Each structure stands twice: as C-alpha cells, then as structure tokens.
C-alpha cells in the first residue's frame, strides 16, 4: 500500500504521540509499504525545537524507509491555550505553501490523520477527496472534549464550532480508530457507527522494554542506595496530570530517609513544579530529563512505585501512554482514575496496581503508604503478563495492517 501520514508529532520525540506515530510508520515501511509522513520539527515534550532542527526550514528526511516532510512551526515556551492554538495553526500554515501542492502530485491509497490536533484532519480529508484515497482518523486524545473539560477553551460559540468541525471530519472518515474502550464509547456517542471503528491501542516492544534488576537500573548513576524505595513519575509534565500533589506527598515522607521521589520528564509545568519543590527544601525529591530509549528499561527498573496521575476532567479523554512501558517492565503502578473509566477498569480487572482518587493529595499519600508496606511481586508479574498478552507491538501493528488492507481493498494482494 501507499500510505500517507499527517501528524504534528513524530520521531525522534521520545514520548507521547510522536513516539507511536514514528514506530507505526517505520513498521509499515519495514513490511514493504510505501510510507510518507507530513509532520513538524520535533519539539515535544520539551516545547522547544530540537537543536539539530533549529536552523532549518522545510526539509525532507528519509528515516527507516519513511519519507518525512518536516514543517517549521511556532513553538511557545510558555504554553497557554491561546499560544497552543497559534502553535497548531502555524503548523497548518506551514503545510500549505510547501508540501500540500507536492503531495497532490502523488497518489496514496490511504491517509492516516493522527489527532490531536484534530483540525489537521481537514487537510488530510481534502487530500483524500482530491486523490480518491481512504481517510483514517486515529484519535490519541479527544482534543476538543479535553479543551472543554479542562477549561482551556470557555467560549461556547468556539467550542460548538470545533465540535461541528470534528463531527464533519469523523463522518467523512472511512474509519476512526482510538486507543481505549472508554475513548471508543465517547466516539460512538459522537455518532460514529461501530462498523467504522478500529481499536488501535498503544503498544510496547516487550523484547526491548523488559524487567531488569535494581542493580541494572539507574540507581547507582543517580546516587540512590539499592535497598531504598523510589517513587517515580516519568513522562509529560503537563496540565492534564495534576502533578502538584507529588510535592505534597514528598513533604509527608520527608522523615523517611529511605524514600526518594523522582520526577523525570519535560513539559509545560516543569519549571513551576521545580520552583514548588525548591521552596519546600526537600532533599530527596529530584528532577531528571527524559532518558533515551535505550535507557528506558533501566529507568523503569529504578522505581518501586510508578505514579500514573491524571485530573478528573481528563478521564477517558486521554490514555496515559507511559503505561505500556511500565507494564512491560513489570512495574507496580499507583494510578489515579475514576470508576467507570477504561484506565480504572483495566487496572482493577487485571489487578495491575493500586487505584486512588484523582487530584487528592490525601489519596496519593495513603496509596503510597499502602504500597510501601506491601509485597508487590504479584502486581509486577501480572503487569508483565498483561503487556505480553495485549500490548505486543507486533500483534497490535499486524492487526492494524489487516484493517488497512480491508479498507483499501488490498486484502487479496497481501
């Protein structure tokens, strides 16, 4: 098949949507498909264009068999709702003068639009209509719902317009995919028939991300005794997570010299969190940058307890991508989730961790006290088994490829 991908995030971003879009594209190219991607210069989650791309304009790269068209865009240092809107529309403006006309000279069988940003899909839809391609909308986050629930956008007229544009796009997609059952339900509620829906969860390469001993972890590198306890939050430091409660929890354990808190990652809230931590004078709360992929297993093995935190208002609008690595590494998770959400049900049904109320310092502290006095071996074993059974990269991508062949009519040829 000839496959075109529209998405603002892409390799070499280490976390979030870009990681999965890049891996998907690379895998499809390795299967012999012709794959191209229109994307931005890498900037996430640091919200700063990577140094290797800072002095470049529009450029074309060839990465692992994929033709990658890079677009310059505005990247705000301080991420606000208005600046984020400008950021996303600057990307759309960058696509139009350089790449869109070029792409119209080529014919792809299928266009995969990765959302967010959802309105990028209007370019993908226009291309699909003009060239007779099938459009697939893949939803990693329900962006408009999240903007409403998190009160990032409060203008009712604007929200109504965004929801109408989203519905227009979904109705004209040959298929709509997302990463969880909770998101599936919300998409069905938008009027998308189940026959058009594809379950396409985020995955993990369980042969690369695997359980390691504490001796193989980053503890020695970071000066943490092997027998001490480590509470780790790793990933995006954004507004959806409500990470201030980690600071509150660390205060409660300041008299435990054997308990260390680590925040590892980048994002819009990093500087604010660091300032809060410095004001408290906590000596065993440390910040580290995102680690390269080859260190991921070692990073995950550093922790006794992994924090997976979200605000109540983000329930089932996003699915924490960090979970795939935590499960594959045989990690124990302390998860904030509301009953009835996909995240809650997965953790509860398969007994993969301990669930706590979102946005509650008291609940987090209580959960930590429980986990620190519990033998977590059985949780870790079940987490690894879940990753192998349900999140295997090869299995997930083979299933998606089969759906692509059905949609494009290439089923007989494959």
UniProtKB/TrEMBL annotation:
Domain annotation Glycosyltransferase subfamily 4-like N-terminal: ranges: 15-203
Record's signal peptide: none
Every Glycosyl transferase family domain range: 217-389
Gene3D superfamilies from the UniProt entry: Glycogen Phosphorylase B
Molecular function GO terms recorded: glycosyltransferase activity
Stored Pfam families: Glyco_trans_4_4 (PF13579), Glycos_transf_1 (PF00534)
PANTHER family: COLANIC ACID BIOSYNTHESIS GLYCOSYL TRANSFERASE WCAI-RELATED (PTHR12526:SF633), GLYCOSYLTRANSFERASE (PTHR12526)
Protein name per UniProt: Colanic acid biosynthesis glycosyltransferase WcaI
Originating species: Parapedobacter pyrenivorans
Gene designation per UniProt: wcaI
């Amino acid at each position: 098949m000839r496959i075109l991908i529209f998405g603002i995030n892409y390799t070499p971003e280490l976390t979030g949507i870009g990681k999965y879009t890049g891996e998907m594209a690379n895998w499809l190219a390795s299967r012999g498909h012709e794959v191209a991607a229109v994307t931005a210069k890498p900037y996430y989650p640091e919200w700063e264009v990577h140094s290797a791309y800072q002095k470049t304009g529009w450029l074309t790269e060839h990465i692992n068999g994929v033709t990658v068209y890079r677009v310059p865009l505005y990247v705000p240092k301080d991420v606000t709702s208005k600046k984020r809107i400008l950021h996303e529309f600057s990307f759309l403006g960058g696509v139009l003068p350089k790449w869109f006309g070029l792409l119209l000279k080529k014919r792809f069988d299928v266009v995969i639009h990765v959302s967010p940003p959802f309105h990028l899909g209007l370019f993908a839809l226009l291309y699909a209509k003009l060239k007779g391609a099938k459009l697939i909308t893949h939803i990693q986050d329900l962006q408009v719902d999240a903007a409403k629930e998190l009160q990032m956008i409060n203008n009712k007229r604007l929200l109504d317009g965004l929801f109408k544009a989203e519905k227009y796009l979904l109705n004209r997609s040959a298929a709509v995919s997302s990463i969880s059952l909770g998101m599936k339900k919300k998409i069905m509620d938008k009027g998308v028939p189940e026959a058009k829906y594809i379950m396409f969860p985020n995955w993990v390469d369980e042969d690369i991300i695997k359980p390691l001993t504490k001796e193989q972890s980053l503890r020695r590198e970071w000066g943490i005794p092997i027998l001490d306890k480590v509470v780790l939050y790793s990933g995006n430091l954004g507004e959806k997570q409500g990470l201030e409660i980690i600071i509150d929890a660390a205060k409660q354990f300041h008299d435990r010299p054997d308990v260390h808190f680590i925040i590892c990652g980048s994002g819009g809230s990093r500087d604010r969190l660091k300032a809060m931590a410095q004001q408290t004078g906590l000596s065993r709360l440390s910040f580290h940058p995102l680690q390269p992929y080859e260190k991921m297993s070692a990073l995950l093995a550093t922790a006794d307890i992994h924090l997976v935190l979200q605000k109540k208002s983000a329930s089932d609008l996003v699915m924490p991508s960090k979970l795939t690595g935590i499960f594959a590494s045989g990690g124990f998770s302390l998860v904030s989730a509301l009953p009835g959400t996909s995240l809650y049900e997965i953790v509860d049904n398969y007994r993969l961790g301990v669930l706590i109320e979102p946005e509650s310092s008291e609940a987090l502290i209580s959960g930590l006290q429980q986990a620190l006095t519990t033998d977590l071996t059985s949780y870790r074993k079940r987490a690894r088994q879940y990753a192998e059974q349900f999140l295997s990269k090869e299995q997930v991508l083979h299933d998606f490829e089969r759906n692509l062949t059905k949609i494009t009519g290439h089923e007989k040829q494959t």
